[in-house]
Design brief:
Distance between the termini: 8 Å
Structural class: alpha/beta
Length: 119
Amino acid sequence: MKILIADDSRVMRQIVIRTLRQAGHGGHDIVEAENGRQALELVRTEAPDLVLSDWNMPEMNGIDCLSALRASGSQVAFGFVTSEGSEEMRERAASAGAAFLIAKPFTPEAFDDALRSVI
């Protein structure tokens, strides 16, 4: 499985990769994007099976990236890993087509719970 991780913080991308391993979901091909615009391009060129995206990023945020993907017909599995964990944000993510939202700070167990249905 190929997983695209979109976050403007390189350190956070590495933490997400490490948490995937700790949650028992290591061994996947990982592609990284620094913002939503780059993630959008990489979905087209790399065809990942899953996108794990931050919400707040420069150039294009995660929700705009998801909306652009769905508008283009892409049905790639998409989940947020974000500090935006309010009920309003969860509802916004779900109505835009996100499979899940993992709020920061997160645990390997939170990753496993969210990813079990898509991996």
